[in-house]
Amino acid sequence: MKILLTGITGYIAQRLVPVLLENGHEVVCCVRDLNRFDSKKYASTAISAIEVDFLNKETLLHIPYDIELAYYLIHSMSTQKGNFETMEEVCATNFKNRIEQTNAKQVIYLSGITNAEKLSKHLSSRKNVESILCSSNYALTTLKAGIIVGSGSASFEIIRDLVEKLPFMITPRWLATQSQPIAIRNVVEFLVGVIAKPQTYNQSYDIGGQEVLSYKEMLLRFAKVRGLKRHIVIVPIMTPKISSYWLYFVTSTSYSLAKNLVNSMKVEVICKPNQLASLLGIQLIGYEQAIQLAFDKIEQHQVLSSWTDAQTSDLFQNGFSKFIQVPVNGCYKDIRTRKLANSAVGLEKIWKIGGKTGWYYANWLWEIRGILDKLVGGVGMRRGRKNDKELKTGDALDFWRVMIAQNEEKRLLLYAEMKLPGEAWLEFKIDDNNTLTQTATFRPKGLLGRLYWYSVLPLHGFIFPGMIRKIAEN
User: What are phi and psi of 113, to 5 degrees?
Assistant: First the structure.
C-alpha cells in the first residue's frame, strides 16, 4: 500500500516509518525542507520524501494522486510565534482539501483524549482538527492518546528530569489529575493495526494503557523503577504561569511547550471503554514496564526519535536550507586549526560532542551559558542529545541544531538555537592532511550583536583553544 506520512520529523512518525516499511508498504514522507530528511538511515528503497508546508496550500500539489492511505500527525503546540490553534486549523483544512483529490481511502489521525467538559486550548484544537478532517471522500479513523511513555517522548523526558533531579518536590495541584498513560510501542501497534480495517472507518477510539494514574503516582512509580526515593508535596498556590516556569527551568522543555502542557495537565485524560485493543489483538503494556522498555532502548543506544527532533523553535519556519550555508560577509569568525595524530580518534570525539560527553573543555562555562539562555527564554543545555555516538541532520544537540553531519566528508556543522543578538554557527572539519579546522561564525544583528561578540571574546579565547586541543589529543 502507498502511504502518505506527515509529521516525519516528529516523535511518532519516526517510530512509525520502520514498522510500515517492514510490513511491505511504500511510504511517502512529507517534510517542510528536504534537507531535514535522511533516507540513508532506512535500509529500504520503498521510502521517499516530498517538500510540503501545510500552511502553504500550493506546496500540497507535491502530494501524489495515487496514495491509498494518509497519516495526519501534525501539531503546532510547540510554536513560539502565532496562534497554534489557527495554524492547526489551516494545516488540517489544506490537508483535507488535497487528500480529497487523491485516491486515498483512509486517513488515520492521532489526537488527544477529549472527554472532559472543559478542555485546554491544546485539546480543544485537537478536537477541532478531527471535525475538519471528516470527509465523505475518505474514511477517517481517529486514535486519541494521553501521556505517551517511551524513550525520547516529551512526557517521558519531563518526568525523568523531575524524578532524577529533585529528591523533594513541592508541586502544583494538577499533579493530582488523573491520566491513562500508554506505551509508545502500543501507540504504534494501534496506528498500524487500523490500516484498511473497515470496522474502524469513520470511528474514533481512545487508546490508553492498563492503568489510570495521577501525575503524582506516575512520578513516584517512575522513581520506583529507577530505584530512587522521592517525596512529593502538592500545594494549591501555584498558578499556571508559575507551574509553567517550574517545568521550564527544571526540565528540558521549552516555555511555550511547558505552558501548553500545564494547561492540558489540569484536564483528566481517561479513556472511554472500547474493544479496539481486542479487535487488533494488542496486549497493553503496564506503566512500569513501559518505563523499563524505554530505558532498555536508552542503554542500548537505540532511541529512534526524540521530541526534540521536531523544530521546537521557530528559527526554521522559512526553511532549513538557508542556515546550511554559513555566511561570509558581515560576520565575525574564530578559526582554530590543529594537526591530528589520529583523524579517526578526532572524528569519533567530534561525533560524541555535547550531551553527557560535554564540550571537552571548560564544561562549567558551557553550563553557565545554558543557564543564562534559560533565564532569557532560550532552550538551554538540557536537551542533550538523542544518541551518545551518532549525529544526524536535524538532531538537537544541547542548545545547537545539527545542520550537516557528514561522516565520510568528516564535517559537522551546528547552528545555535540559543537566544542571541544575531546568528551563530560552529563547524568542525578534518581535511585530507589530518588537520582539524574548528570555526565559530557569528553574524551580528545591529549594535547589540557587535557588542555581544566583543564582550564574549575573552571567553572564546579561553574555551575554543582548549576545546580543539582536547579533541586533537589521542
Answer: -65, 130
